[in-house]
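Regression report. Comparing outputs from two consecutive submissions.

Submission 1:
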Amino acid sequence: SGCRWDVEFSVNCSFTGISTIPEDTSQTAITADFSYNNIKTFRCADGRSEEWMLKHLNLSNNLISELSLTTCRNLPVLETLNLDGNAIRTLALDVPTPAHGSQTYGKVHRLLPALKVLSVERNNLNRVPRGLGRLQSLQTVRLSSNGIGQIDASDFQNCSQLKDIHLQNNKITKIHPDAFRDLNKLQVVVDLRENALATPLPQILISLNFFRLEVGLSNNAW
């Protein structure tokens, strides 16, 4: 496949022209770099039932347009996922509630239980991906340079561990007053620079703790 093993547990497949994840990729790899290729689809399971030991996965600068992470049950220790510079319009994180009486009814599957950093910058998202709250360990979410138009009350619901939210350079015109209200661990930055906000945000700002929080609001329409 042209991939290079840099050290014992690191595989580098960047700039190799691959269009799919090589089947011979070792499940013991801790870091995998598949950036700058022609990958159009990525399926976590993809016929592999064994758990991968991956902690850091780089899929940036490929051709991915739609992606579902709801089947990612074989990446239990993944901490960082880089999807920057693709063409992602839809990023699925939520799953339908099982029907009453089905075999999966009442069962809760923790999606990517160790994921701390999700980066989806420079894509084609028009809204915050639904289901971010299923990523129970998520601390940083980067959604800059997309086409997101508004932030709803439920977009960051149950994201109890979030510390950083990056929304710079979108098309945001409206933010629900309660969008960030229950994110008690926010402490570094809510980056809303270079959007289309036309009115001040007193209700939102009052709900945030300015003694430990940096908020970026420059280059908006006001």
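Submission 2:
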Amino acid sequence: QVSELVQFLLVKDQKKIPIKRADMLKNIIREYKDAYSEIVNKAGRTLQEVFGLQLVEIDTKRHIYILINNLPRAEGQYLCRDKEKEKMGLLLVILSFIFMKGNSVKDSALWEFLHLLRVYPGKQHSVFGDVRKLVTEEFVRQKYLETTPIPLTDPPEFKYQWGPRAEKETSKKDVLNFVAKIQGKDPTFWASQYSETRA
């Protein structure tokens, strides 16, 4: 629940819309509402440690939260414009999903995963624009992702893998550490992925 909430808050924050407790309960926490404050506190800690963001309640009556940046911007690496930075955030989430699923995922599995983050292909997203286009065209053209048709599928299906640029700009070790931080676990928890990062 914590890692889903962290990803939900990050996606919400990209629109800079305040986040309501009701939305967190309805979309993410659901039947765990007795543990609401524990889940939110843990998510807040993760956001602070991993992303340098602080989860702040701006309206205690109606329980409305925002994320604020409490770290000086990292020099160099993310000096690209905010929209670009957010696209890179989405890309990192997609790359980690592919890696954790064994380095290759069907397009249907990828869209399902993005659905969980409230990012819908075919719907205009306020930050990413046309998400399907961003993933299938832009990230592929930039060589962050590679697609291969799956033979004998009707309608045709595709597999997504890391592209050569992703291999150069990040590493499986960094991605595993990113996932481990979001999930609050040690990277060794995922034995096969961990051994792959050591290879």
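Expected: both submissions complete independently.
Actual: both completed, but the second showed a warning that disappeared on reload.
Relevant detail on submission 2: Residues 82-197 form a domain with the Arc Repressor Mutant, subunit A fold (CATH 1.10.10.1210).
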